[in-house]
Amino acid sequence: MVIGPDTRTIVLDHDVMLDSIMLGLRRGSGDPTHRRIGNGWLRASRTPSGPVLIMIGATGRTVRARAWGDGAQWALDQLPRLLGADDDPSGFRPLPEHPPLVEAHRRFPYFRVGRTERVIEAILPSCIEQVVTGKEAFRAWRLLVTEYGEVPPGPGGDPDSPVYGMRVPPAPETWARVPSWKFLMAGVEQRRSRPLVRAAGRAAALERTLALTFADADRALQSQPGIGPWTSAEVRQRAHGDPDAWSIGDYHVGRAITWALTGEKLDDDACTELLEPYRGHRYRVQALLGMAGHTPPRRGPRMTLPTHTPYATRGRS
Question: Where is this region: Disordered (predicted)?
């Protein structure tokens, strides 16, 4: 028997850019934890109170949500923060010498950095995404979550339901028990699976970083073996809502930002210097430029994906 959903209508003090927030949480178009449905989104998550499936729709400042499962009340109470209610962009001012950023801010004045307040759900896929292409990482995430995640609460059993095939991310203790050969079959070698399993074993301590300042959370995350500046930034962007956590160390991001603002593709050191006037909002710069489509033109062939595992080979298109 499907228990009826809890519902909530909230009105924020800014128009809600729902797609920009949810696309930042979804790990590729096949992510079984997130799905676009009409003009809204479905999100399956594991809250401190238990699993939840939440359906979110937004029109202007008004947000309507329905949630199923033991985590329904937690997810509905947390929804304003997920949608950026705690983000304060008032100190952000694009410099006039950076016209692409000025234009991006004009086009997306209501962009807010949301926070999921689920650290473990951010750190585990970020470990999978280390040092590989997005396509390879998204495929591995999809395979592992589909196999080890659980069907979300609510109307998910009907093959005609838009929820069909979705999964709640596995619990930390489940991740900790995934055999090494299963990671390898999904294309995740030990260099990435080891920090993932370690993080799963320290889930409670990692969740406590939500009570810290952004700077202290960064230091605490990077104190974990296998978690460096890039992984910490990816986690803080999502779980903590840190508007300064730009993706330093990413192969593409620094080059894209410097190309947008200077016309040249430069390294992370140059990007860090260029972003200094925006300290406190450096991830906001990254996100705005990305939404505005400021990426350097591609020249040459794309990187070839590895084919050394059964799952990786099977998933090739």
Answer: 293-317
